[in-house]
Sequence to fold (746 residues):
Amino acid sequence: MPGTLTETTGSPPPPDIPELPWGGDGPDRDRPERGGSRSASLTGIIVLMCASTMTFAALISAMVVRRGLNNDWGHIGLPQILWWNTGAIVISSILLDVARRKLRSGNRQLFNWLWSAGAVLGTGFLIGQAIAWQQLSNRGFYAAGHPSTAFFYVLTWTHAAHVVGTLLPVLYVMWRALRYELGPGRRTMVEVSAAFWHFLDVMWLAIMALYAFWA
Amino acid sequence: MKWLFSTDHRTIARLYFFLSLIAVFAGTALSLVMRFHLIMPAVKIGADVMAPEFYLSMLTLHGTLMVFFVLTLAPMSAFANLVLPEQLGATGMAFPRLNLLSFWITLASFCILIASFLATGGGPLSGWTAYPPLSVVGAIAGPGQGLGQTLWFYSIGTFCIASLLTAINIIATVIEMRAPGMDLMAMPLTCWNWFLTAILTLLSFSVLIAAAVLILLDRLAGTSFFVPGGLLVADQVIDHSGGSPLLWQHLFWFFGHPEVYIAILPGMGIVSELLSTFSGRPIFGYKAMVTATISIAFLGMLVWGHHMFISGLNPYSAIAFSLLTMVIGAPSAVKTFNWLATIWGGNLRFTTAMLFAIGFVSIFVTGGLSGLFLGQPQLDAYFHDTYFVVAHFHLIMGIAALFGIFAGTFYWFPLLFGRMMNERLGKLHFYLTFIGAYATFGPMHFAGFAGNPRRYADFTTFDFLAQVMPLQRWITGAAFFLAAVQIIFIWNLFHSIWRGAEAPANPWGATTLEWSQSGIDTRDTKTCPGP
Fold:
């Protein structure tokens, strides 16, 4: 049954949140009109994914062209921590998605655990990225160095900027979830931020594949 | 000041409208100073004669203001916000707060741009295309290439973010918020054009922002994406290696050409609606119009290379870009003939808005025809750096789009301010503007034929340009005339805001949904109490 507790723990039962008939997030969302819906938000985030894909595509195509221009291309050995970071973002993506499904089926406590774990892993990914940049810098690989390194920094910085922008709503969702303010009828931000997190997951895998096999 | 923080789409439309108005004031003033300097370069403006660097700095600000803050903002951000939701049967945009955020980021971008012009060391002077390497190497390249140029790139990057947010909002609104039963092929052509403009914005500004990031890193972090090795500037070897200025041109024009359609497509939508309304007939060939618009948008994404014929492009690439450019003529012709077929035999009402719509068709055809010359690599090799190009893009991108903006302003003024603009003054303004536009930009084609180079601050030092000076003097006179007659519009606009006749519910007898309410209601629904 939507909005009810399905797992019993020692914590107090969360307040009941009725599902809204039109699938939106309630009249407090500043959208009294039709269209304040989850569907519109998901459409918006898919369109944003298209824009971000174009940005990454532009950067990668510039990288392909730049590599062919001169003989100054050099390979960088990827810091080991990047593989741990890859694991972190993939697992975090899985956790957020399972959490999203749990919320939809009304299991709010399990959602809270899974979502929080995903958010922590996501934050860990970002910290891991900062460590990777530091390690590269310590090894003498700077943005102003050879173009392969420069593009690595550009791509990972751009990706990290997206991650920061997505982690904010993910952490906000976590905060609201822990206060039991979310439910099956109030989960637009959950759906939207999880969808964009998956997108960033795929983008990261593409960047890693590019540097592991080509650059 | 509540309206500054309102999420009401019509209030945001008004904010964009006035921001564009400020930008067009500033851009026009700059162009007049430049035109005056071109015919009288020895005259002192202030304490001294104008330095060429200052001329180029004004040229840069003029181009940037007009392209980004007038031709991008007014047709899409202002007018789409004003009527798109109601035309779809909705009461607002999909994301009202994102909508307001877009405006604020745009305003920040505008402030950064003005700051770049006033920056220590001078305003940027690389033009609105900011070609490297000179736009990258910094202050060593001369006045304006230091802080001013850096701020310019920040401004453009910020503008990209705002435009992307607006595009997301428009696309989501069109997809999600249409009234029940209104499928895509039942939308007014205005909505189709804003929808496709938003898609173009999404695809092209997201590339420009990538290019802006790369070029800022070249300037600030010492990377070498766009700066070649061994570059000697001011007797100093630049510490970059291996980059390619051509790479910037590819990325920039991948944005830059669709930008032409971002400016003109909304105007096409407005004109389609107005010709239909004021002819008392449905638009001729609705499906063909939609198909033509989609074709123009699609092909417009594939022809960026025709801006680079003389940049060292592979000749085979040039042929491909040239052919694709020519193909755009086909859907453009479909639109033109359908517009003519719409008004043919109709019960025409020559309101000011209708006159500007017809004027748009005229300017669009004239400006489009000169594009056929420039789309051919052999001819472009001669014309590219001449006033022929200035004439072409001012007509097709500037004046045609401005006619669309004027048409939209007169037509939707009741929805903007609840009153009517003065028709007699409007018609006078149209006829004088129409004459002034052709008088200014028509002769520029001949200056181009004569080999008159563009971007030069002073023609008097070149003997071979002595023959075009009378023409240039005429152009300057016409430009001042064109600017002067805009006073009529400004008077009409502001007088009508406060003193105009109250607008009836549907003053034009239009059939689209924005006029379907029982009376004109311009109240801000997000800050004013309801009835």
Remarks:
- The mean pLDDT of chain B is 94.
- Chain B is about 65% helix and 0% strand.
